[in-house]
Amino acid sequence: MGRWLLRRSIQAAVTFVVAVTLLFFLMRLAPGDPLWRLQEGEMLTPEARAVLERLYGMDRPPLEQFWTFLRG
Predict the structure, then answer these.
(1) Domain limits at 4?
(2) In terms of domains, do 36 and 63 share one?
(3) How far apart are the first and last CA of the chain?
(4) Are 33 and 56 contacting, i.e. CB atoms less than 8 angstroms apart?
(5) Helices (H), the chain
(6) So what's the pLDDT on residue 41?
């Protein structure tokens, strides 16, 4: 019973890590970005967009963004 529970727990952890990783990178492949909707209606100036990108870390490399995403 203990060995089975350990194996299932490891499988669940691996599945969770794979799902979170896929979710993060698939969302990065989607067209546009989170600020695109604000800029579409010209409600966002380029300067404001740059500030928001820096604030939310969208100007960082994808792996750094992923690490921040994992840390919560």
Answers:
(1) 1-30
(2) yes
(3) 34
(4) no
(5) 2-29, 36-40, 46-55, 62-71
(6) 65
